[in-house]
Amino acid sequence: MRLLIVGTLKGQLTTATKIAMDNGASVTHATGNEQAMAVLRGGKGADLLLVDVGLDIRDLVMRLEAEHIHVPIVACGITSDARAAVAAIHAGAKEYIPLPPDPELIAAVLAAVANDSRDLIYRDEAMGKVIKLAQQIACSDASIMITGESGTGKEVLARYVHTRSNRARRPFISINCAAIPEHLLESELFGHEKGAFTGAVARRIGKFEEATGGTLLLDEISEMDVRLQSKLLRAIQERVIDRVGGNRPVPVDIRIIATSNRNLADAVREGTFREDLLFRLNVVNLKIPPLRERPADILELAQHFAKKYAEANGVPVRPVSADARRVLTTNRWQGNVRELENTIHRAVLMASGDEIGADAILTPDGDRLDLAKTAPVVAHATLAAEQVTRALVGRTVADVERDLILETLKHCLGNRTHAANILGISIRTLRNKLNEYADGGIPITPAGNGDHRAVVATA
């Protein structure tokens, strides 16, 4: 975590500085808004700003927005005046802290606002294999591609790799390639020189230079424009970047981790992703299974989130009841860990009694998760499957096999070779079966002409 203190607060925030540094954070100071912007443009960056409430916080927020720098602000002041706190929040600050600071309050705000307490919780063997591979390659400088559905925890795993690498004490910089407009992403990645385009009021260091010595996470890289992919490929191959509007290459020393929730091999075939870039990024692939394929992780994560949100909301920590565990483990969790976390957060707030019961496991609409209406398509498929199953009950295997073979042959317009391929049997076996059915007087679709009229096979 990188903390930037803005204003004449060094003396008052000694405690905050010490807490941050004890947790491995780096601390930088700036006397005012202009110097703070210079620090942020210069590549040091920050995960959190602690700003003197006496400064013009609204001006600082507007400067950050104008240059597309995204960093949360916590205002600090030597008064507990409610009006000062309200004014700071209205100006764009996330929180207000009175000074001198309370150590526990500072620690809580740093964790909540900077969101730097991402835990990697797992128990399932399927996830264990992924973690084992991550540990094995963490100390190398090999590029890593982390794939998996949305909400499975790709960024959490990327941070896990970084913290166990030789670059752990250097920056971990993340950029979401899908969240930034195409015309701004190049500047965000590679930086720009003053005057390079409208709004470039000063030189700005991009994420590549900001991450020098550390790790750069390119989140959802499949959404990056093909034109920009070629510039990214050069940066990875040659370890140099060109700022927008610059006239000389800038060396960088970073490890690349990329994530995608799409199949990039398909994107290559579609022409939306460069094959040579995929080879460069996909030196090691960490594929995170969806939560529905990690049943042991569901309950482990549920207990973790129950404790986390009970403490965050000041309510008693309750165990998850047996009925609630059944509901959790039978749900499909299309939104994966993110959906489970939100569900448990709701459950913590809605639960009553000594346990979190099934009646507290709710959908966002407030319905019980196990009683929620099934989506029409799913319901139709379920009904169809039940009807097929009922149609099979009471029949012999030989009868079912015969109908399957004859219906497949009809579907193939009598083509024996195609039917055998679909059924997964040899053409000889198919012919023997058809002769057997014909001897029993059963109509067989004729071969060759595709005529669906039923006749008796003679050979």
UniProtKB/TrEMBL annotation:
The keyword DNA-binding applies. Keywords: Activator, ATP-binding, DNA-binding, Nucleotide-binding, Phosphoprotein, Transcription, Transcription regulation, Two-component regulatory system. Residues 2-114 form the Response regulatory domain. One of its GO terms (biological process) is regulation of DNA-templated transcription. Residues 120-349 form the Sigma-54 factor interaction domain. It holds the Pfam family Sigma54_activat. It comes from the Bacteria. The keyword DNA-binding applies. GO terms for molecular function: ATP binding; sequence-specific DNA binding. InterPro entries: AAA+_ATPase, AAA_lid_NorR, CheY-like_superfamily, Homeodomain-like_sf, HTH_Fis, P-loop_NTPase, Sig_transdc_resp-reg_receiver, Sigma_54_int. The modification 4-aspartylphosphate is found at residue 52. PROSITE patterns: RESPONSE_REGULATORY, SIGMA54_INTERACT_1, SIGMA54_INTERACT_4. This is Two component, sigma54 specific, transcriptional regulator, Fis family. It comes from Nitrobacter hamburgensis (strain DSM 10229 / NCIMB 13809 / X14).
